[in-house]
Design goal:
It is built from 20 helices and 14 strands. By secondary structure, the protein is of the alpha/beta class. It has three domains: 2-177, no CATH class; 193-366, Rossmann fold, CATH 3.40.50.300; 372-443, Helicase, Ruva Protein, domain 3, CATH 1.10.8. The structure holds adenosine-5'-triphosphate and magnesium ion (MG). Magnesium ion (MG) binds next to helix 10. Keywords: ATP-binding, Nucleotide-binding.
């Protein structure tokens, strides 16, 4: 890791040294001062083959030209060497104001933030033809902007291209410095949280036929890339893998999604669809898009919980066609299909799943209520190893008798373990267990 950081720092130092030479030459030429070259283009950029740096990989991946490298270095400068741009803050002594031709805006901390005008000045000076050529690099269709590495942020009150701020995305800065992206934090702009778990596959209790279906998803995680690329099936199969987990609450859907991420060493991001699918989706669409993009770039797993929101309770819409034609839902479904990775949707409502919806999934896994044999394993795994069971408390009988899902079993175990601790004991009592079960049944509207 520290080796990589060193390589990243060295590559950025070299690139910014070069940027500073370019800035210096451009200003000298512009002001008619003595300059060693007759164009900044004569200053060769550093060797892009600096081994092992994230910058070298970026250059290779995007085959950046020297002009494109100026754009990237300029956008990066405020992050890694803000003083490199201080020269642009100098004032025109004749007019007693900043040089219009340098563009830029002054940050609240006083530093110089480049704009498109700054980039055009560096690339072309004031020669109009050269500026027109350079401005094609600033087109929103240019790969640097399309891939969201750079962006142009229009400034309030000004609508010229030149006045838009040239900014590097957080992802680009993180990638070139730390070598990886920081994990975005949850908020309105990124409505997803990372899902983690402390359990292992051995602790996941499912009937063999369900485990087999989960194994299919694991196989895709292991070999999907090979299938789509080396085997060339990507053109026919489309990009990602969509999977629906459905079944009653507490049967292990979320747990399985977290375990799949852990197994594949991928982050799992959980989006709660019930919070997102509303009639105001227009506003959240953009935010969801940032989740999709982050997940695609970082090869994360996306987990959409409460997927019922997509097909449940959509009042007044009778046929499946109407439901999916609904604009907000249509966006999500389309985006899910274009997503280049594993997406898992989880739902409790089997009754509402129809063929039009199910056809969109490569796997549909039903998580059933556990049978007595699975319940017995769940009970055994759930108690702390430091506690003991009252003689006469037989987990085999308990498992046979009460139909509870894994999540509810955990609730009962929490309840009777706390009762034991209150008694300053480590012994779990049958009476407490019964009371715990009664409470769970009550929640579900059942009686013992
Ligand atoms: N099949 C299972 N094997 C092992 N543990 C389980 C299983 N099902 C549930 N549990 C336990 O119960 C907890 C809750 O389960 P989980 O959150 O995965 O349920 P869910 O199916 O996602 O429920 P919901 O539909 O309410 O979201 C898990 O963290 C785990 O500790
Ligand atoms: Mg869940």
């Amino acid at each position: 890791m520290s080796e990589e950081l060193r390589a990243n720092a060295a590559a950025l130092e070299a690139e910014l040294d070069w940027l500073q030479r370019v800035v210096d030459a451009r200003i000298r030429l512009h002001c008619g001062q003595e300059c060693l070259v007759d164009s900044p283009a004569a200053l060769p950029p550093p060797d892009p083959r600096t081994p092992g740096s994230a910058y070298a990989r970026l250059l290779q991946e995007h085959r950046l030209t020297p002009s494109e490298r100026i754009l990237v270095a300029l956008a990066l400068a405020p992050h890694v060497r803000p003083q490199a741009l201080d020269v642009f803050l100098s004032r025109n002594a004749v007019l007693e104001r900043p040089f219009t031709e340098f563009g830029g805006v002054v940050a609240p901390h006083g530093g110089f933030l480049p704009t498109a005008e700054t980039a055009l000045f560096l690339l072309a000076g004031d020669a109009l033809h050269a500026r027109l050529v350079a401005s094609t690099l600033l087109d929103s269709g240019h790969p640097l902007f399309q891939s969201h590495l750079l962006r142009l942020e229009p400034q309030p009150g000004s609508d010229t291209l030149g006045s838009a701020r040239l900014a590097a995305s957080v992802e680009l800065v993180d990638r070139l410095t730390l070598g990886r992206a920081r994990r975005p934090s949850f908020g309105p702009a990124f409505p997803a949280r990372r899902l983690t778990c402390e359990l292992t596959w051995d602790e996941l209790v499912l009937e063999p036929y369900v485990l087999n279906q989960v194994a299919e998803v694991r196989a895709w995680m292991d070999s999907g890339h090979t299938l789509l690329h080396a085997w060339g099936l990507g053109r026919k199969l489309g990009p990602g893998y969509r999977c629906l987990f459905h079944g009653p609450p507490g049967t292990g859907k979320t747990l399985t999604a977290a375990l799949l991420g852990r197994q594949a060493r991928r982050d799992v991001f959980r989006v709660d669809l019930s919070l997102v699918v509303s009639k105001y989706i227009g506003e959240t669409e953009k935010n969801l898009e940032s989740v999709f993009q982050h997940a695609e770039k970082q090869e994360c797993i996306l987990f959409f919980d409460e997927a019922d929101a997509l097909f449940g309770k959509r009042t007044g819409l009778s046929s499946a066609h109407d439901r999916y034609a609904n604009q907000e839902v249509a966006y999500l479904l389309q985006r899910l299909e274009a997503f280049e990775g594993l997406v898992i949707l989880a739902s409790n409502l089997k009754a509402n799943l129809d063929d039009a919806f199910l056809r969109r999934f490569q796997s549909v896994v039903h998580f059933p209520m556990p049978k007595p044999a699975e319940r017995q394993r769940l009970w055994r795994n759930a108690f702390s190893p430091v506690c003991t069971l009252e003689p006469g408390l037989n987990l085999h009988e308990v498992a046979e008798r009460y139909e509870l899902a894994g999540g509810s079993i955990l609730n009962v175990v929490r309840y009777c373990s706390l009762m034991a601790l209150q008694r300053q004991s480590r012994e779990i009592l049958l009476a407490d267990l019964h009371e715990g079960v009664r409470r769970e049944y009550q929640k579900e509207g059942k009686t013992l």
